[in-house]
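quick one: NAP bound model?
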Amino acid sequence: MIVESKNNNNNVKKTEEIAAAAADEAAVSSSSISSPATTSANNTSTSTTSVSASSASSATTTTTAVTTGGVATTTTTTTTTTDRGVAGVSYRTPLAYGTKISGKDQSKTAYNVETAIQEGFRHIVTCGHHSSNNESGVGMGLQNAYTNNNVGIERKDLFLQTCFVPFTGNKHDFLRQSSDPPEIELLTMSIEDQVHLSIKTSLRNLKTTYLDAYIFHNFRAKLYDTNEMLKAWKVFEEYVDQGIIKHLGLTSVHNAKWFEKTFFNTNNNNSTTTTTQMIPRITPTIIQNRFHSNRQYDVGAMQEIFHGTTTNNKYSKLQIQRFWILNGSSGGGRFHTELATKKGLSAAQLLLSFVMTQQETCLVGTNNLQHMKEDIVISKCYHTIFHSEQERNDYSKKLGMKQQPVGKQLPGSYNGGGGGSGSISDNPGSGSCNATTE
Ligand SMILES: NC(=O)c1ccc[n+]([C@@H]2O[C@H](COP(=O)([O-])OP(=O)(O)OC[C@H]3O[C@@H](n4cnc5c(N)ncnc54)[C@H](OP(=O)(O)O)[C@@H]3O)[C@@H](O)[C@H]2O)c1
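yep, here:
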């Protein structure tokens, strides 16, 4: 419980100043601010009602009135669509390029990012002030991609995500930037000022005037102090208000109760008390978690939050991103080599396709061109790989995934539909991609 702070005009002023500076500094040829990265449901010229059906799909009900021979008839059709465009700026992409890399290899970042974009990655995930990410190298890679005629993309064609690393409490992972004040000053800064400095630095590093997503980074699956996190979040919200940030999120959330209470517990506002929990105005749309057996692959309460499908689900806008898919406890899928070979895939591709059918976003940070190509191919045909729910279930068992409670099925579906087994009936699943790479 914390005392709700008053609106800090000083903070708002800083937000505006940083916005103006970013607009001046962005040396990017294509830096116009695009509209928020959401994808709307189908539109038709007839009467259309859109209903959010699940965390990764929307159902569009179209009513068509036809009058024939004086008799009026009405036809109602419902279509389910997923909003997971690969070559677009949706925050629900099946695949994103992660720029984490060891310190000694960070000179490769610019080249890797340019190459990843050239190969088809459109969602780039990096992290500011993080010792394993070279954010300014990412900016160079982006710049090179914009000016490379073979790539032919602009800022608006990408989904750029970076993160906020609190300066204190992360001794080994925090990376001071050359433009920052001395470390002694950084360590005594308020968390609000840390956020301002970080956003300013990220905008400059990434040569952009806006960020598609900004994530609060929790290290090693341990949540940062909630009170401090919420103070930081308040500043995040000001940048959303200004249109500088489009989506907010956080990493490593494995405690469903904490998540609910911190971000969604609207019952806490009791006017008879002076101390109320600060409830964020803008709720997270992205959670970045490990795909790992030591957290039960989030089967259970967290999965309910990530993938609950009840009507008007308050978490329906959440998208889960996964790291440690290929280098975690699932062994890069190597236990499934036989099945992968049968399907004409590599074990890594089969594992990625499984996670994608769960409607989750796979973060991969490959340095290898062939792997980039393979990852892109699977992001386009993951919904054709598994033949049935049974096959997907068997695969999850072999992965060591905690099994779903009786009567519950795995999130997503074998054929990529958001609403469970067989929801896209014209896509029976061929069981393989046409080629290992395009
Ligand atoms: N929030 C957090 O705490 C956190 C922690 C870790 C990572 N992340 C995010 O997640 C991103 C991914 O990191 P990660 O730790 O999951 O691992 P990663 O850096 O993606 O590494 C995965 C491994 O998979 C290999 N690989 C990729 N595609 C392959 C393919 N098609 N076939 C075979 N091998 C393939 C890569 O090797 P090659 O280079 O040889 O292809 C690499 O050894 C990071 O960049 C970061 O954005 C977040």
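Confidence is low (pLDDT under 50) at residues 1-7, 27-83, 270-275, 418-429.
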